[in-house]
């Protein structure tokens, strides 16, 4: 006879206490421009994976790189007065 066992880990893996907190969701929302800029940069790189980049491709990559950098700078400027956890003094 085979014993009947529960799948406790599978059931509790999606419990309410495992959801992201409001603070975590706010952090994701603040970082969303950086995430989207990084996705655009990856898209620009992906287009050139199977061919030699043209001048237009190179411009697109440079533009996406500048956008990603600008988004990171903007995020850092927003959090200038905020204490970041785990950082050095």
Your description of this structure?
The protein is mainly α and 89 residues long. It is 62% helix and 0% strand. It is flat. The N and C termini lie far apart (62 Å). The mean pLDDT is 84.
The overall average pLDDT, rounded, is 84
| Radius of gyration using CA atoms only | 21 Å
Coarse structural class: mainly alpha
Treating each run of at least 4 consecutive H or I residues as one helix, how many helices?
3
**Number of beta-strand segments:** 0
Share in β-strands: under 5%
The ordered H/E elements are HHH
Low-confidence spans: none
Helicity level, as a percent range?
Answer: 55-70%
Distance between the termini: 62 Å
> What is the global morphology?
flat
Write a short abstract of this structure.
By secondary structure, this protein is mainly alpha-helical.
List keywords for this structure.
flat; single chain; 62% helix; 89 residues; mainly alpha
What's the arrangement of secondary structure elements?
Layout: H1 8-12, H2 22-47, H3 55-78
